[in-house]
Amino acid sequence: MNKVKNENYRAGFLGIIGQPNAGKSSLMNYLIKEKVSIVTSKPQTTRRRILGLHSEDSGQVVFIDAPGVVKSTSGLNMFLQQEAEDVIKASDSLLAVLSINEDSIERNEEILEMVAKSKKPWMAIITKTDLTEKIHRISMLKDLVKSKGGESLAVSIKNDTIEDRQMILEKCISLMPQAAAPLYDEELFTTENVKSILEEIIREKCFEILEYEVPYQLAVQTRKFDEEAKPCPKIYVDIIIGKDTHKPIVIGKGGANIKRIGEQAREEIQKIMDISKVYLELNVVVKDNWFENKTTMKELKYVIEKQ
Ligand SMILES: Nc1nc2c(ncn2[C@@H]2O[C@H](COP(=O)(O)OP(=O)(O)OP(=O)(O)O)[C@@H](O)[C@H]2O)c(=O)[nH]1
Ligand SMILES: [Mg+2]
């Protein structure tokens, strides 16, 4: 049971907006102290919004990790664009994530303009401050944020301190609307179910292990998840690719790639499910150009659900 909250209690949705690869998912995981959203070194890793929850006595922040801002008029990339825009609409307040590793000032300015235009409360988080050769950009970005009427905090998730995290969380809570009660159970740290988490973990390993356009034209879907199976849970998953020619790449020489993807994913899934063994079977399925096919995109939940 949630306790009755005092009159200064705050709770709401905080959208995380930034360019692809800015460090949005890393920032959310760091703030909620759980790995909820997948992170890779490649841009456009996050494909749909993922909620991460932080609850304390003074308030609850429901972070919404969004895909990076991209521009496109068709297919999967158009979904990514719409999803980021829709997260702005669905949020009470916004965090603009600006990486000091971003060489183009215009690309960071574009993010600030998007959040300022929303007319919602916002602040900027300047990330990757451990990249010492780029630290001159911190003060430049701080000035830019100020010129748009906002406040900023700088952080590195690699060299983090408890103070940094606490200070950012306090600011995040202050951006939330007043509320009588939390929006979600205070014990929860995400609304994602185990099936979607494990699909995302497998997609993360595919992103890390596979090169060129292959991970961008790949999706992951659970075919069967038998949690009660003996001696251990059994999970059967399809790795969906858009072209026949990608199949040997996903499988790799003598099955090396698919084996690595499976091993790494299985280890992480076992940790998340808090069990010592799961059986994971990966199957590669070709669905020609699925990322341009509305029906398949819908099956894979790459659609904006109209409320
Ligand atoms: N050095 C350094 N790297 C970071 C930091 N934060 C994130 N990264 C790295 O930046 C890369 C991208 O991180 P993500 O969190 O996936 O970025 P994102 O903004 O969610 O990316 P998309 O979902 O693709 O839009 C990863 O390789 C992270 O490890 C940081 O504070 N310092
Ligand atoms: Mg991300």
Q: What attributes characterize this protein structure?
A:
binds magnesium ion; globular; Rossmann fold; alpha/beta; single chain; three-stranded mixed β-sheet; six-stranded mixed β-sheet; binds guanosine-5'-triphosphate; 21% strand; 35% helix; 307 residues
Characterization of the model:
The chain is of the alpha/beta class and 307 residues long. It folds into two domains: 10-174, Rossmann fold (3-Layer(aba) Sandwich); 194-299, K homology (KH) domain (GMP Synthetase, Chain A, domain 3, 2-Layer Sandwich), CATH 3.30.300. 35% of the residues lie in helices and 21% in strands. The protein contains nine helices and nine strands. It has helices spanning 24-32, 75-90, 105-117, 136-147, 162-174, 194-209, 247-251, 256-273, 294-299; strands at residues 10-18, 50-56, 59-65, 93-99, 122-127, 152-154, 218-226, 234-241, 279-286. Strands 2-3-1-4-5-6 form a six-stranded mixed β-sheet, sandwiched between helices. Strands 7-8-9 form a three-stranded mixed β-sheet. It is globular, with a radius of gyration of 20 Å. The mean pLDDT is 95. Residues 24-25, 37, 45-46, 65 line the site of magnesium ion.
